[in-house]
Amino acid sequence: MLTSKLRIIGRVQGVGFRFHCSQLARQWHLGGSVKNEADGSVSLVLQADAQTRKDFLQALEEANPYARIDQVDLLAEEDLDFKDSFETLY
C-alpha cells in the first residue's frame, strides 16, 4: 500500500486537528498515524493512493472549522504492508 509521510503546516495544533484526522481516517478505513511536532506542525503518515490522499486532506480541512492547512509537504512515499489501524501518537 502506498504510504506517505506528510508534514502539515498551518493552524493545526490546539484546535482538535489530530482528533478530526483520526476520526476521518477511521471512517475512510485508512491506516497510519498523526502526531504533533515541536515546531507547531503535524506529522501525518497515511496509507492511501494519491487521489484519496488529496481528497482526505480536503475533507479534513472542511471537517474542522478551527483548523487551517497552509502547506502540505510530502516528505516520503513508499510501498508498505497495509496497516489496518490509525493511531494518534504523543
UniProtKB/TrEMBL annotation:
Catalytic residues in the record: R18, N36
Pfam families: Acylphosphatase
Organism domain of life: Bacteria
Catalytic activity: an acyl phosphate + H2O = a carboxylate + phosphate + H(+)
Keyword presence, Hydrolase: yes
Gene Ontology MF term list: acylphosphatase activity
EC number: 3.6.1.7
Every Acylphosphatase-like domain range: 3-90
Family: Belongs to the acylphosphatase family.
Protein name per its UniProtKB record: acylphosphatase
